[in-house]
Amino acid sequence: MSSPHALYINGQWVDGDRHITNTNPSDLTDVIGDYAQASVTQVKEAIEAARLGQREWAKTGLEQRYGVLMAIGDELMARKEALGRLLSREEGKPLAEGMGEVARSAQFFHYYAAEVLRQLDERVDSVRPGVEVDTRREPVGVVGVISPWNFPMATAVWKIAPALAFGNAVIFKPANLVPASAWALTEIISRQALPAGTFNLLMGSGGSVGEALITSPAINALTFTGSLDVGRRVAAATAGNLVKCQLEMGSKNALIVAEDADLDLAVEAAFNGAYSGTGQKCTASSRLIVHAAVHDAFVDRLSARLANAKVGPALEEGVQIGPVADERQLESNLNWIERAQAEGATLAFGGERVACASDGYFMAPTLFVDTTNAMAINREEVFGPIACVIKVADMDEAIATLNDTNFGLTAGIITDSLALATRFKADAETGCVMVNLPTAGTDYHVPFGGRKDSSFGPREQGRYAREFYTVVKTCYVKA
User: Fold this and answer.
1) Which of 91, 248, 381, 460 is catalytic?
2) What's the confidence (pLDDT) of residue 1?
3) How far is CA 25 from each of CA 3, 8, 181, rounded to the nearest angstrom?
4) 248 is annotated as an active-site residue
5) For residue range 361-405, what is the model confidence (pLDDT) as tens digits?
6) What φ, ψ does residue 88 adopt, rounded to 5°?
7) What's the first-to-final CA gap in the chain, in angstroms?
8) 337 CB burial (10 A radius; 0-12, 13-18, 19+)
9) Cα–Cα distance between 381 and 386 in angstroms, integer?
10) How far is CA 287 from CA 345, 362, 412, 414, in A?
């Protein structure tokens, strides 16, 4: 396809009513391409096409469906370097992380290809003589997929792959900040043996395309990953039409560093959890809850680790922290730094914009100490390379601080004590817990999701995904 990059509706590449320019956050002079923007009318056209395509796709043989998903995964894996470079160029994460995201996307397609062949129904005996009962799962129908900008391929794929595996059609609306990865994924999918309308790409703003999708009574399910405020809007809109809804929203994850922690392990877990991906992860360790006995030593070691971290363009060799996503995110991060200091937090490291050879949205990894859990920076999601240390006296205070939040996605602890680890796993009010591991980093074959304001609806990933992408039918038969 030549520029501008088109929408994909009903098996055809079509132009939108306008276009946007996608720019590299590592180098503002580098234009990645122009991307079409869908109209509200095109949203309706895509949904109508999806309803027709889904009926045909649901009747497709299991081996054909398996082959389609495997082929998509195979091509993603074969092209992970080129696609990872494109992803890093538009989102800003270092190249190794970009390539890793593409590889993980391939793994999702491979996993759900296998799930196609593992769809087994159940037979049970009736309480009535001579009656047989079986339960079967059928596709939910047309699924709207709204994905975020921080994982422009992986988060989209962990929704798209199970939707297709279980016989659904997809309307895919990526974040408008990162259309290139979504378009590249769609180009791969478009060459597979899918009925027209089974997969559709609608690039556009949340205020127009997203709003038209979430308020449509013609879709059957809507899966969304993004902010809490928008998630609440999605929940309200879909509830009005009785559309099945799945939400992954905000977080304020904590990593506890216990008195007996291996500090080298703790520092690496904190660095990887809080600063990889420039801190732009829903699983990032933004709160570091540290026992008083090891507080000073931990802060010194983590500060030294940050001083040695290379900040720079995503594609530059050796870079560990790339740019933030755009100018608005950079301004938000710098404003949070000023706000935290005004509240009484002490800046231990970073806090400033970083100049590099190219003009981009670079900032130093930032660490605050002398913070309390009542401070706004420890209550609200920041979504940047910023972490705050909270000193605690014992495990009771650590657990209480961990749970004192409206969110509950991930939590971690660094400890050599089996007793502390066991207590932490039981008492942490989060959907995922990690022992002696970073809070960021999850597997694709097990459930993912949170509690409180972090998640709503059935879990994502693994076999648990079928709870959202299928409906149950109970069949009674008397011979």
Assistant:
1) 248
2) 39
3) 20, 26, 15
4) yes
5) 999 999 999 999 999 999 999 999 999 999 999 999 999 999 999
6) -65, -35
7) 57
8) buried
9) 10
10) 13, 22, 10, 14
Q: What burial letters (b/e) apply to 205-214, b meaning 16+ CB within 10 Å? A: ebeebbbbbb
Handedness of CA 456, 185, 281, 173 (dihedral sign): negative
pLDDT for residue 3: 59
Phi and psi torsions of 222, nearest 5° = -135, 120
Q: How many residues does the chain have?
A: 479
CB 360 within 8 A of CB 312: no
Confidence (pLDDT) at 120: 82
What are the residue ranges in the chain where pLDDT is below 50? Answer: 1-2
CA nearest 409: which of 451, 439, 445? 451
Selected catalytic residue, list 90, 97, 101, 282: 282
Task: Give this prediction's pTM.
Answer: 0.96
Q: Is residue 165 within 8 Å of residue 65, measured between CB atoms?
A: yes
For residue 111, give every residue at least 6 positions away whose Cβ sits within 8 Å of its Cβ, in sequence order, or none: 161, 444, 445
CA nearest neighbour of 367 among 382, 228, 440, 399: 382
Burial of 293 (0-12, 13-18, 19+ CB in 10 A): middle
Does the N-terminal peptide bond of residue 217 adopt cis geometry, omega within 30 degrees of 0?
no
How far is residue 121 from each of residues 116, 128, 411, measured CA to CA in Å?
12, 21, 35
Q: Say how many C-beta atoms besides its own lie within 10 A of residue 233's C-beta.
A: 18
Please compute Rg for the chain using Cα positions: 23
Of 191, 198, 195, 185, nearest to 106 (Cα)? 185
282 is known as an active-site residue? yes
Q: What is the C-alpha to C-alpha distance for residues 377 and 364, in angstroms, rounded to an integer?
A: 17
User: What proportion of the chain, given as a percentage, has pLDDT over 70?
Assistant: 99
